[in-house]
Amino acid sequence: MEKKEIVIDGNAFSDLRGFAVEFGKKVFNENCWGADRPLEDMFNFDMLNDMLAGGHGAPEGEFAIVWKNSKKSMEDLGYKETVKWLESRLPQHTIPSNRDLFKKKIDFAKNGKGNTLFDTIVEIIRGRGIELRLE
Questions:
Q1: What is the mean pLDDT of residues 20-30?
Q2: Rounded distance, CA 83 to CA 103, Å?
Q3: Taking the model in full, what pTM does it have?
Q4: CATH number of the domain that residue 67 is part of
Q5: Half-sphere exposure of 116 (CA within 13 A, CB side)
Q6: How far is CA 50 from its chain centroid?
Q7: Of 104 and 51, which is predicted with more confidence?
Q8: Are 79 and 110 in contact (CB under 8 A)?
Q9: C-alpha closest to that of 81 among 134, 117, 42, 125
Q10: Domain count of the fold of the chain
Q11: CA distances (Å), 102 to each of 41, 61, 89, 95, in order?
Q12: Which pLDDT tens digit goes with each residue over 27-47?
């Protein structure tokens, strides 16, 4: 039996909000992160991981994700967007150690180091054993 292929296109978005909308529609058939919500509330990597585990709208059975124009997405979801997202989430962390960790991540991203949003998304998808083809 051939795996179902889900195609997402990097030309359909240029930031994390756009990715969340595109990915949600294509993979989960819904806007699961609420594009109308503030960025810090909209996208949660733990939620993405849980949803890809199944039972939350992810396709049943095996499927593959084909990410067209992934090089554009790698840039769009690179360090600049990573800094923007991390800074939006910083006010949520009132525990000093969490704030310090986020500040370090922000400094790393500003210096072009550490994982980008793109890297994290790819790791989560592949970590769930989902075939991901970057085109």
A1: 82
A2: 10
A3: 0.87
A4: 3.30.370.10
A5: 16
A6: 13
A7: 104
A8: yes
A9: 117
A10: 1
A11: 16, 36, 8, 11
A12: 877 656 555 666 555 667 887
In the block, tokens 């909209």 appear at 42
What tokens appear for 101 in the block? 């960790």
Would you state the structure tokens that stand for residue 115, as one six-digit string? 């994982």
Query: CB neighbours (10 Å) of residue 129?
Result: 9
**One-letter amino acid for residue 111 of the chain:** N
Q: For residue 131, what are the β-bridge partners?
A: 64
Amino acid at 38: P
What is the residue-wise DSSP string for 26-45?
HHHSS-TT-TTS-HHHH--H
If one counts every other C-beta atom within 10 angstroms of the C-beta of residue 6, the result is 17
Cα–Cα distance measured from residue 7 to residue 59, given in angstroms and rounded to the nearest whole number: 13
- 8 beta partners: 67
- Looking at the chain, the whole-number percentage of residues with pLDDT higher than 70 is 85
What is the domain range of residue 48? 4-134
Give SS3 for 67: strand
Instruction: DSSP letter for 62, please.
Output: -
Q: Which pair of tokens denotes residue 94?
A: 């009132």
CA separation for the pair 129, 131 (Å, rounded)? 6
| 17: its two tokens | 């909000």
